[in-house]
Amino acid sequence: MSDLRVAVLGVGMMGGFHVETLSRRVHGATVSVINDYDQAKAVAVAGSIGARTESDPLAAINADDVDAVVIASPGTAHEQQVLACLDRGIPVLCEKPLTVDPVSALEVVKAERRTGKQLVQLGFMRRFDPEYAAAKQLIDSGELGRVLLLHCVHRNMANGPHFDSAMMITDSVVHEVDVARFLLGEEIASVQVLKPTATSAAPEGVSDPMIVIFRTGSGVIVTVEIFVRAQIGYEVRTEVVGERGSTLFGLDQHGITKLSGPDGSGRWGGLVPPGFIERFAPAYQIELQHWVDAARTGGIDGPGAWDGYAAAAVCAAGVEAVRTGEVVPVTLGSIE
Amino acid sequence: MSDLRVAVLGVGMMGGFHVETLSRRVHGATVSVINDYDQAKAVAVAGSIGARTESDPLAAINADDVDAVVIASPGTAHEQQVLACLDRGIPVLCEKPLTVDPVSALEVVKAERRTGKQLVQLGFMRRFDPEYAAAKQLIDSGELGRVLLLHCVHRNMANGPHFDSAMMITDSVVHEVDVARFLLGEEIASVQVLKPTATSAAPEGVSDPMIVIFRTGSGVIVTVEIFVRAQIGYEVRTEVVGERGSTLFGLDQHGITKLSGPDGSGRWGGLVPPGFIERFAPAYQIELQHWVDAARTGGIDGPGAWDGYAAAAVCAAGVEAVRTGEVVPVTLGSIE
Amino acid sequence: MSDLRVAVLGVGMMGGFHVETLSRRVHGATVSVINDYDQAKAVAVAGSIGARTESDPLAAINADDVDAVVIASPGTAHEQQVLACLDRGIPVLCEKPLTVDPVSALEVVKAERRTGKQLVQLGFMRRFDPEYAAAKQLIDSGELGRVLLLHCVHRNMANGPHFDSAMMITDSVVHEVDVARFLLGEEIASVQVLKPTATSAAPEGVSDPMIVIFRTGSGVIVTVEIFVRAQIGYEVRTEVVGERGSTLFGLDQHGITKLSGPDGSGRWGGLVPPGFIERFAPAYQIELQHWVDAARTGGIDGPGAWDGYAAAAVCAAGVEAVRTGEVVPVTLGSIE
Amino acid sequence: MSDLRVAVLGVGMMGGFHVETLSRRVHGATVSVINDYDQAKAVAVAGSIGARTESDPLAAINADDVDAVVIASPGTAHEQQVLACLDRGIPVLCEKPLTVDPVSALEVVKAERRTGKQLVQLGFMRRFDPEYAAAKQLIDSGELGRVLLLHCVHRNMANGPHFDSAMMITDSVVHEVDVARFLLGEEIASVQVLKPTATSAAPEGVSDPMIVIFRTGSGVIVTVEIFVRAQIGYEVRTEVVGERGSTLFGLDQHGITKLSGPDGSGRWGGLVPPGFIERFAPAYQIELQHWVDAARTGGIDGPGAWDGYAAAAVCAAGVEAVRTGEVVPVTLGSIE
Known about the structure:
Chain A is of the alpha/beta class. Chain A has two domains: 4-125 and 282-303, Rossmann fold (3-Layer(aba) Sandwich); 127-280 and 312-329, 2-Layer Sandwich (Dihydrodipicolinate Reductase, domain 2), CATH 3.30.360.10. Chain A has helices spanning 13-24, 39-49, 57-61, 78-88, 102-115, 130-141, 165-184, 276-295, 305-324; strands at 4-9, 29-35, 52-53, 68-71, 92-94, 120-122, 147-155, 188-194, 210-216, 221-227, 235-242, 246-249, 256-260, 266-271, 328-329. In chain A, the strands form three sheets. Chain A has a seven-stranded mixed β-sheet with strand order 12-11-7-10-9-8-15, with helices on one face. The first copy, chain A, is globular.
């Protein structure tokens, strides 16, 4: 079977990493077209892998040498680009968010529905991380009993002043939204946000860290610590608590090095990964391989448009919860 | 210096363990008098260590051969017994609760204040656990920066049907109340309780597990998972999150054994301690040694009557929060 | 660039896994030809990926639709097959052993030398394992100081009665030979083998477990526990001890699950991987990607023929050490 | 029962710590007499606990206010002091070594035998460490199957230039000698010592680190890494490998702290204890409590004179093995 020819829209950190992975570590894919609003960057990236550039994203989507599309452009551009892929009937891997709000996200779900096929895959890469996949399998095995609680910790080293409380929900907690929906197999029914005193590293008016609490339809409670200026590194940790057992993963324990610290005291331990690419590189690779394999036969293999819509709906409620301090219900629309 | 002669009131599991520790592993103490409402049990315990019994707890407190008192009787008896110790002016180690409600607890604080001495020590043994003590030291060193969040997990293997949602607060979460006050060095200002779907192991009407949330005066948020029928063992875990670092302790990682499981698959790991005595035996021993050392010179060395009162006030708010689902403020009285 | 067309010789467990990896998870490779002495198996594997079969391995090596070769056939066939690849001047990835003895291995090194190119890569996959690679980087950073000791543990769940003491050296310890040479960057100068009482699971006359001791030219000592019937799972652990620090990796600590054991006691821990494919699947994938990338430009990227020869020489000394109980020196030949 | 009145001979670091423990953390003991060749130090220590001094150790042993003796004087003084205790017929806790050589140690064993009682306990405190005790229990439960191998690591932060290769055996490895005999329940039959290149922190002529190998009568092999200038802290780690399972303990994993390192990279881990007192303080306390409890009824409760003799014999063979590089057999004398 010939390689899947992929257009990549947006080659910032995420898109650039996807180009690298698709071009060097995934079987059966060729990145044929690069698009970026910064044409110089597009030219540089395309040159490094022998692709061509296209200055108009819609032209890239509709090009003859493109079989499928990866969208890593700014979130405001996603809706139009995904709809163009649906119009042409080709598979697309869209980084979160699906669109900028639940209403438009639901429209995309409906548009996909009208094609009669599943063409839109969302870039929730954690589903492909071996630890998350093992936890899902353990839950589904029934060994833990019915799940009652989920505890999540999500910490970043640092973020710029633009990264406000709402972005902490829509750009960061969105991953826990998908993790909770994936692991629990059900929808989130409400969101609440608690704000402790903020770190002095946060800009005026930004609540960092926050405790975000989801409640699912069946009554599972999910606690999420989101702390995007924790000054250490990238930490993503999850604990699943069931009636008969629990599992905790994402601790950084991969080997123990012993060295003297700056004060001469002996220290055991290791390095915390600085960022999400270091932590989740294997997950991204597995995600892209699954997507390419599925796209070569015209489908997807991972979270879909509905997952993107549900995440958008929960995040919208979360932003409201940040604003009001109330428990905000999540109501999902119908695609009928 | 001659040994401190101790009367132990109540020799159930906790009191019996204290008798054993005082009589065999603590320097400078002799248990001279045993009291229990079950006289046969008192006689048996007294016989094993060469002590005498006293059928009336107040007589025990006032006996000539008693220099100090350990109260491990039912909580309803504590108020009268502590006041009798204060009347006589001798040191007392009182298991939680100090009394059954905040009003009476505050009266005990005032009664102690009138003696002009600190005579009442509360049995919050975790303050003496080496891991908690190290965390306190780490916080106080400033290395973590200002503390913003505390995450606690408190799980028991099993509990009888009488152990209802209110007792989960007053008998279990009371330890996290003291841990939070101890580690953070400030009072808790409000309590909120979230109830996920209960485990099927819980009796009708009991919310097990629960998520309890404290907010301190300065704005630190404390999350507590309390789950008293978790079916595995005794797990007490704490994470302190500061502006510049975090520390997590209470993981069960003391040695790794590899064996085949019942299904023939290889398994690494170890045993979870079944109960609090296995987990905290060294802490109890250190607690009693500190108390005996202080009591021999007429004082205390550990959490005092105010700590008992504050815990009672927070727990009363917690019980209210269980009932109402609201954020319940904690207002502490004045001892002036 | 067009895909590298690969012939895979031998599709047992290892070769079959390589076919799967090359065909589904590696960029830029197509398995075009399958050879196995069991033609039915060759046909089955070839059919699953759209390749053709070739009943003669030398014909496969010389076929027009073959650019490079993976050798996973029995060790006795390697010499002739590698030499045929050298004759044709195409890259080859050869599973260990390079050949069955040091003399013939040295001949292969010389034959490769005469081609003027590096064409032979050995399948020592651990060099591509992220933990080994990180340890190598840590050593090379100088942070541990000069390395003085290396401790290795290598345990398998089970092995058949044919797997005798000599095979424990040539098939299992051979990996530690390469690990030691890789991490230390120098040759092994002598081998000694110590035999404790054997496990009752070992056949009569087989010394399982054994302690194998290497000494390098500069005086580093390497201890290896090899235990191929340990009944638990696959455990490969390494500790590097330097003048100023140490690093230990390969502990199984990737997440902590808590469940009740068969006796009702609570247990924390996780699963030990059953075999080397579960443990090293990512390493194999990285190894093959590196090899494919290099082979597409006619070279190799990993351990070479000399590494295969050196391992053969150390293993031959090891087999002698098993027999005699003496310290057996390793003398490496010259390729001039 | 009245307190055991203890004379402590030698109040250097070890003896001083014992005085502290006996006087403040052990039930039923009073340190009545202090002796040290440095009388000023004896006076200072005695003053701090209300004891008196005795400038002659034999006078201390025979004093009316002494019921039992702790010997923490230099090893050369032990023989005479232990024999004096035996002459008087009182219990003694003797720090290792029992005496300076196997011949004299055997004489002590015989002298004790003539008293008809067990009066001599050796200060091998690891037997009282909860981790070692749990490992012993696990071995004895049969869950691991027959033990085949023991791997020990013993590292110190630093040592002075006087601490030569022989002392590394007699002062450090002596603990592993006792650990091996304790865990395995049998005698060590031979010793071999391997010397890698020494750390540059070692004085000329001192082999630091070394690999020491014991073989027991039944064929178990014990590997010991002894490294007394490892520059990090105090690390004592043990792995027991049986036919059906293994257990590894002594890893430093008691809580995970995350902080930024000096280079700004995030680091997880904790502190390595600097010395043996920090690591084994609870074991010393348990050891002394056991000894005091037994001594109050005239006996011992722990390793005895024979264990001291056997350790001396193995260490003498070890020193010979350091010198010769050969496998040196250990032959134990008879006490008949």
